[in-house]
Amino acid sequence: MATIYADISSALDSHLSSFATTNSLTVQWENKTSKRPNTTHLRQSLLPVESIQAELGDTGQDYNQVIYQVDIVVRANDGKKELYTKADLVADHFARGTNLTYNSQNIRITRVEFSPLVFDTDFVFIAVSITAENYTAAR
After folding, report:
1. For residue 33, what pLDDT band results from cuts at 50, 70 and 90?
2. For residues 98 and 56, what is the distance between their CA atoms, to the nearest angstrom?
3. Which value, to the nearest 10 degrees, does the dihedral of the CA atoms of residues 134, 108, 111, 89 take?
4. Are 46 and 116 contacting, i.e. CB atoms less than 8 angstroms apart?
5. Cα separation of the two ends of the chain
6. How big is the CA angle at 70 (ends 69 and 74), to the nearest 5 degrees?
7. Sign of the torsion angle spanned by Cα atoms 100, 95, 71, 19
8. Residues 117/79, Cβ–Cβ less than 8 Å
9. Rounded distance between C-alpha atoms, residue 75 and residue 33, angstroms
10. Could you give the 3-state DSSP secondary structure of residue 1?
11. Is 47 left (phi over 0), alpha (psi -120 to 50) or beta?
12. Torsion sign, CA atoms 49, 55, 56, 57
């Protein structure tokens, strides 16, 4: 049974976990029940974009692309310097050209970009969108 997206997600999650540990940040993991921390934290999600045939024939490879979104979340009214500083650190950690491996899946980061600030009642966040790709056996 192929676990392509689970493996891609695990590779990216592991890379984010090492960043969070190094920077003493909490991560709100996708599909985990937890109360939102009351301090600066990260929130992640995996957005599959496409899976297309990359080579001809029954045994040709598929090309898979995902966006791994990391939200940097800070309390409202605390200013934006910390927000942009943390976003830059995340972008540097997931720099274009970074290669990750999980369960023999090789994943390469191809692009990193920021969204505009998003405001909710008590928090402000910026999304760092990390585009990643890999090639797998045909499905």
Report:
1. low
2. 28
3. 140
4. no
5. 10
6. 140
7. positive
8. no
9. 20
10. coil
11. beta
12. negative
Instruction: Using a pLDDT cut of 70, give the percent of the chain over it.
Output: 94
Residues contacting 57, CB < 8 A, separation 6+: none
The dihedral region occupied by 90, where left means phi > 0, alpha psi between -120 and 50, and beta the remainder, is alpha
For residues 42 and 104, the model is more confident at 42
24: left (phi over 0), alpha (psi -120 to 50) or beta: left
The type of residue at 50 is: E
With beta carbons less than 8 A apart as the criterion, state whether 50 and 64 touch: yes
Q: What pLDDT is attached to residue 52?
A: 66
Decide if domain 4-136 falls under CATH 3.30.70.100: no
More confident residue, 31 or 114: 114
The answer to whether 107 touches 8, Cβ cutoff 8 Å, is: yes
Dist CA 79 CA 114 (whole Å): 17
